[in-house]
Specification:
about 425 residues, alpha+beta, SH3 type barrels, Fumarylacetoacetate hydrolase, domain 2, 8-stranded mixed β-sheet, 5-stranded antiparallel β-sheet, binds calcium ion
Length: about 425
């Protein structure tokens, strides 16, 4: 086990019970305060550790870090140093924060630790490219049953390749950013012609995304065995969707305006290192996959996921509990498939899993499935009902892995839908 993951580690920074950010996590993000312009930091308990301060005051010497690498609006240049350096920085920060380490003076501790209540979290990376997969068998089966035929819910290719499409990078926003209800073309069931209006079926999609930390050459491919060396870490991801726009536009080339009006990601990039203890085997893949998609080892991760829906300022209520471990196709297979034709990847690419639905109705990862396309509305604590997302509703995704008293959390992925402009 990596020393930085050891369950017995404790920090001199107070970490409240149930915190997403114990010393075993140490995710990276970009934050600003009233006094600080955007810089890189690490989450610990209810504080953010300022990496620029640590770097400029020689606490990170010997790790081969270029000057100014943390004094930036995005983590791209840091991530571009590669998995080994990301690991080395996390290991060093772990050492500095250990309860029995006194390298940081009282003054240094005071300056380097910023209370979370005083920071604003920003986009962790400048998103270079965004790809969305469709890798949950339960989700693909539910959607196929609803929109096509329950007997042939999965299309013939689904168990042979991780289906995906290229999404839009420009409209990915960080947690806490409001989005307006999209407008577009929809074709009501009883109408002969399409109409242009605000979407009546705005939905969330519960997803986890990985962020890459390398540039590869056009023409080259990444194997399933190499894939994790290219992944900096994971974030929670809400791939907002307008189901009515989607249903009218998606044949033959897939989703377009139904998806690119906004996607929300959580601000803390949780490293694959921190998630190492939570590896689990994925579902058995039958029929057997082609050799370039075969893989060794446990490549799924046991990450508990929860979606809460909040009407206006009412108490948020849980509408779904799922788990990242349900994914049929794992990240290594996704990246191998994505590059098998020679497509190059870039630092700061976001690759989303696709909606993560579990086997039971309470674990479905979208309103489309939870309400079965509006047929079974969800009742809300304020007495109202929801078929889809209403104006003023906030969707909150949480995620954490937990074992032996260690909780590796992601923080929040939150977004509110405002009325159409
Ligand atoms: Ca999606």
């Amino acid at each position: 086990m990596m020393q930085a993951n050891h369950p017995s580690l404790k920090s001199w920074v107070e970490v409240p019970k149930g915190s997403d950010f114990p010393i075993q996590n140490l995710p990276f993000g970009i934050f600003k305060t009233k006094y600080l312009s955007p810089v890189a930091g690490v989450a610990i308990g209810q504080h953010v550790l300022d990496l620029v301060y640590l770097h400029e005051n020689a606490y990170l010497d010997g790790l081969g870090l270029p000057a100014g690498v943390f004094n930036q609006k995005y983590l791209n240049d840091f991530f571009a140093l590669g998995r080994k350096t990301i690991t080395a920085v996390r290991n060093r920060v772990s050492e500095l924060l250990r309860h029995d380490n006194d390298e940081m003076t009282a003054a240094a501790r005071e300056i380097a630790l910023v209370p979370m209540a005083e920071v604003q979290m920003l986009m962790p990376v400048r998103v270079s490219n965004y790809t969305d997969f469709y890798s949950s068998e339960e989700h693909a089966t539910n959607v196929g049953s609803m929109f096509r035929d329950p007997k042939n819910a999965l299309l013939p290719n689904w168990k042979h390749l991780p289906v995906g499409y290229h999404g839009r990078a420009s409209s990915i926003v960080v947690s806490g950013t409001d989005l307006h209800r999209p407008k577009g073309q929809i074709k009501p069931a009883d109408a002969e012609l399409p109409v242009y209006c605000p979407s009546r079926k705005v939905d969330f999609e519960l997803e986890v995304a990985f962020i890459t930390c390398t540039e590869t050459k056009l023409g080259s491919s990444i194997t399933t065995q190499q894939a994790e060396e290219h992944i900096a870490g994971l974030v929670l991801f809400n791939d907002w969707s307008a189901r009515d726009i989607q249903q009218w536009e998606y044949v033959p080339l897939g989703p377009f305006l139904s998806k690119n009006f906004g996607s929300t990601l959580s601000p803390w990039v949780v490293t694959l290192d921190a998630l190492e203890p939570f590896r689990v085997k994925g579902p058995e893949q039958l029929p057997h996959v082609l050799p370039y998609l075969s893989y060794e080892g446990a490549r799924n991760f046991d990450i508990q996921l929860e979606v809460l829906l909040q009407a206006g300022k009412a108490e948020p209520t849980t509408v779904s509990r799922s788990n990242f471990k349900y994914m049929y196709w794992n990240m290594c297979q996704q990246l191998a498939h994505h590059t098998v034709n020679g497509c190059n990847i870039q630092v700061g690419d976001v690759y989303a899993s696709g909606t993560i639905s579990g086997p039971s109705p309470g674990s479905y990862g979208s309103m489309l499935e939870l309400t079965w396309n509006g047929q079974k509305p969800l009742s809300m604590p304020d007495g109202t009902a929801r078929q889809f997302i209403e104006d003023g509703d906030t969707v909150l995704i949480k995620g954490f892995a937990e074992k032996e008293g260690v909780r590796i959390g992601f923080g929040e992925c939150k977004g509110r839908i405002l009325p159409a402009l």
